[in-house]
Structure formats: structure tokens, C-alpha cells
């Protein structure tokens, strides 16, 4: 099998064959970036996170760095995920709080219609 080549200063240089990235490493890097982004947004906006939120971000970051994921029960998240479903939800809530927005509504908590039958 021949790989495509490219010319570099008159020489023929074979193309670099890369191995695909490990999905666990990608998930770990994405989770760490999201945690750092949440902390950075809160610091820039001058928002004071509660003690619990600060401890949450710190402990999750430490567990992701140490173990590659922040939860132990495989039923709480996907096999290639670094954060559990609830940890991801809490992280999003912290980011929204840091940006100064309202707390996002959870699933099933939308505005209700005044009349179910359609009559006024």
C-alpha cells in the first residue's frame, strides 16, 4: 500500500501516518478544559462561587487527572465519558451562574399552558 507523498524542497517526503486519538484521552482533555473554562469565566466575571461549587470543581478536576474519569459507577455515564451525566449538568449550571444568566430549567419544567383544552 502506498501513501500519498508531498514534495518538500525538491525531495519526495512520504505523508505522515497518524494513529487515531484515544477516545478516553479526548474525553479527559475535554472535561479538564470545560472545568478550567468554568473557573476562568467565574474569575473574570467576578462571580463568587459557593464553597460547594469550588470544592466540586476542584475534586472533579483532581479525579479526572488521576483516574481519567470522575465517577466510578459505569451506569452513571457513558463508557467513553470523563464526567457523569449529573456532573455535566452541574458544570453547565455553574457556567450559567458565572455568566450571570438564569438557572436553566430542567427537563419537564417548561412553562405550562393556561388552558389544556384550548378554550379561553
Considering the chains and any ligands shown, give keywords for the structure.
120 residues, mainly alpha, two-stranded antiparallel sheet, 3 helices, 2 strands
Please tell me about this protein's structure.
- The chain is mainly alpha-helical and 120 residues long.
- The chain has a domain at 23-99.
- It is 46% helix and 7% strand.
- It is built from 3 helices and 2 strands, in the order ββααα.
- It has a two-stranded antiparallel sheet.
- The longest helix has 23 residues, at 23-45.
- The N and C termini lie far apart (73 Å).
* Main structural class: mainly alpha
Strand content: 5-15%
- DSSP helix fraction: 40-55%
Adjacency order of strands in the biggest sheet: 1-2
Shape descriptor: elongated
Distance between the termini: 73 Å
Uncertain segments: none
Mean pLDDT: 82
Query: Count the helices. How many?
Result: 3
Biggest sheet descriptor: 2 strands, antiparallel
H-E order: EEHHH
The number of E-state strands comes to: 2
What Rg do the Cα atoms give?
22 Å
Amino acid at each position: 500500500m502506498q501513501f500519498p507523498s508531498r514534495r518538500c524542497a525538491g525531495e519526495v517526503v512520504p505523508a505522515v501516518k497518524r494513529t487515531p486519538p484515544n477516545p478516553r484521552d479526548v474525553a479527559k482533555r475535554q472535561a479538564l478544559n470545560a472545568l478550567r473554562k468554568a473557573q476562568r469565566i467565574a474569575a473574570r466575571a467576578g462571580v463568587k462561587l459557593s464553597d460547594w461549587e469550588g470544592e466540586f470543581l476542584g475534586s472533579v478536576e483532581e479525579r479526572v487527572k488521576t483516574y481519567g474519569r470522575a465517577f466510578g459507577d459505569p451506569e452513571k455515564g457513558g463508557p467513553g465519558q470523563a464526567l457523569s451525566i449529573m456532573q455535566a449538568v452541574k458544570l453547565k449550571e455553574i457556567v450559567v451562574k458565572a455568566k450571570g444568566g438564569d438557572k436553566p430549567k430542567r427537563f419537564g419544567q417548561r412553562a405550562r399552558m393556561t388552558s389544556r383544552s384550548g378554550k379561553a
